[in-house]
Amino acid sequence: MVRRTLQDNWLEMDGRRVFYRTLPAGESAAEHPPLLLVHGIACCTETWKPFLDELAVRVEAPQIIVPDLPAHGRTEKPGRILGMADFGAWVERFLSRLAVPRVDVMGHSMGCQVTLALADLFPERVRRAILLGPTMGGRHVPVVRNFGGLLADSAMEPLSYNLLLQTVFFRMGPLRYLRTVRQMQRDDAFEHARRIEALSLVLQGTRDAIIPKHAARELAHAFPRGEYRQIEGAAHAAQYTHPEETAATVLAFTGRPGP
Description:
It is a single chain. The protein has helices spanning about 50-55, 85-95, 110-120, 145-155, 160-170, 175-185, 190-195, 215-220, 240, 245-255, and strands at about 5-15, 15-25, 35-40, 65, 105-110, 125-130, 200-205, 225-230. With about 260 residues, it is an alpha/beta fold. The chain has one domain: Rossmann fold, CATH 3.40.50. It has an 8-stranded mixed beta sheet with strand order 1-2-4-3-5-6-7-8, with helices on both faces.
């Protein structure tokens, strides 16, 4: 078994340094676009690490691109609070800087809202969309429900994951975090989903306490070409706690022939 090596990279956008990681494609990877991973609020490239380690030994895995979003991880903070459409536009410009015309995109938590904004605003950029534990906006899941679920979910996640989130949270800053949550609540995932023609998968851990399962299923049905699946035994961060099962599901989905 040959493990491919993650590469750390930097570039400058809008006068600020952006950190991202890449993983080369496996030797048996099909001719599909790269897979772009978009993390959630108060997360970073490190919250994908177990998933990336699993992809690194899978010969069928495509090239992987994983940025730290603005004000997250090692990417510098912008001068203002970004909404979901702002994040989506930022990701599109990031792809342009890398000269990557089209991707499959996998978002986690808030990263799903960013994925939806990207696919809605720039449909030519997205071949397939995968939403893991998608947040949806206040119209569908009230903020009190989200915070209550976050507390319940933290008890089911490993200590290493919770400590990582805590580190990124304080680096981001509590005020910026709360203002970003407000932007998340103003967004409507269902409105985006109804306009997205890309084949889309809503993925969720069976123990996810943050996102109600009925809402996740309804979101999958809102897509013209949507599907819903679960990762058995996982909570909200299936990519961290159940990387093998998550990778198998994602690669089977992106590996299907067709557009």
